[in-house]
């Protein structure tokens, strides 16, 4: 008898993240994703010749004048800039930083679950490539929030539409990643409980359609 | 609820498909589309084609209380090849590095008690100085609306909230609709090194703007050299690279684009524009171009190069690139400068498709 989907998803998450490898994969993926996100959103600046040291010693942290809680929701004004080197600075507006970390955490969890599902299925001699590919759309959608870069890639009339989508991009990506995570977790729970469950192998083997 | 693969893929597909469709659909009226009405107000047409550039009003924050560095301090910050928009205000030379103004687009300044705004649009490469006073005498400063027309900065005045595309200088919506701002023909676009060589006592806009930005970096990547545009324009012309720098001039309802690099070699040109006799003079020291009315105490004379100098053909007096007679019979006379500024070709053409071109 099948458990409710949410119960199954919770069990899958608990099962997968009982392994140290899952935490490692999720953490590394989240970090790399967040860095890529900040780079694409131009919040992590790597600009050869920028000469940040001409404006003051590096490394250094500059705080925005008139720092206030409004910076928490201001998508354009960074509350601080961390000058790491002469050509490297981190200048994320707070919502961009939150989005990078939150979406990064979800992408990391998705990837960790995919890896665990793959490893679990392989240990039973089954392939789970479809499961990994299933998470791909949400992974790609998670980059939709990097609108400034998307504008440069698309250009022309498309930019107008992309700009209009910016307010929806992060919520959409989050929704896709949460759905994908729940689906992957539920799937992992089933596979770990019954490795043949993948691709309905067990059902076909027993003549169930 | 069961998360089936089919349901999940359908959900993801719908989300991504919606994004793709929206990105490909024309979100603004096409330039070739017929006008809704034969008597449609051209300003209404322009207003209907204004699009969001992303930021909220003043999301790109103007510099409201500009601070300046002495040249010696500025030398520690800026290299000689940094592009600046520069002018002389109240007898004091001032330079505005684009590495700062690219983040703010407007510097609201006062000089001798009069408000003025030094504006720069990074997407059209145009720097225009406007008087901060409306035609009814009300003083005003300007803000960034976060909107664009023909990729060009649309400013709003803080007194009435009317919208003013920078390259038009005319309000297209709001209380001041149809009104033209007074452009101050003061600025040149040059490099910091060239400007300070001419004016060693120049002041330079400080990075203490009241805002925190990664000054010294350019947020628009290779936009200035790429042929690609980010936002739609009303008209396009392929005669030049879209980002080629021209000097835009308007007079009597006509427009002229001067190909800047080519003109710097030519040095002087006499033109008639909209019934106005003008002369364009290159300033080799600043690698800049200024345009003046050809009105002298001897009437509308013509100008010609003579060796390294420029002389008028009437009296053979020598004239400086700043439009002042420095030797000869007319020594001390000054030409009246008209508004002319660097701008990228695509933007000038989009605003003034009937523009003539001077090489």
Explain this structure to me?
The complex is a heterodimer of chains A (209) and B (359). Chain A is built from eight helices and four strands. With 209 residues, chain A is α+β, with helices and mostly antiparallel strands. Chain A has a four-stranded antiparallel sheet. In chain A, helix 1 crosses helix 7, helix 3 packs parallel to helix 7 and helix 6 packs across helix 7. In chain B, the strands form seven sheets. A five-stranded mixed sheet of chain B has the order 2-12-4-3-11. A four-stranded antiparallel sheet of chain B has the order 1-8-9-10, covered by helices on one side. Chain B is α+β, with helices and mostly antiparallel strands and 359 residues long. The N terminus of chain B is likely disordered. Chain B has seven helices and 26 strands. At the A-B interface, helix 5, helix 6 and helix 7 of A face helix 1 and strand 1 of B.
Question: How are the SSEs placed, and which strands pair?
Answer:
The complex is a heterodimer of chains A (209) and B (359).
Chain A: H1 5-16, H2 20-40, E1 44-46, E2 60-63, E3 80-85, E4 88-90, H3 94-123, H4 129-134, H5 136-141, H6 147-154, H7 156-193, H8 201-205
Antiparallel strand pairs in A: 1-4, 2-3, 3-4
Chain B: H1 5-24, H2 42-48, E1 51-52, E2 68-70, H3 71-77, E3 83-89, E4 92-97, H4 98-101, E5 106-111, E6 114-121, E7 126-131, E8 142-149, E9 152-157, E10 163-165, E11 188-191, H5 192-198, E12 203-205, E13 245-251, E14 254-259, H6 260-266, E15 268-273, E16 276-283, E17 288-293, E18 295-296, E19 299-300, E20 303-306, E21 309-312, E22 318-319, E23 325-327, E24 337-338, E25 340-344, H7 345-351, E26 356-358
Parallel strand pairs in B: 4-12, 14-26
Antiparallel strand pairs in B: 1-8, 2-12, 3-4, 3-11, 5-6, 6-7, 8-9, 9-10, 13-14, 13-25, 15-16, 16-17, 17-24, 18-19, 20-21, 21-22, 22-23
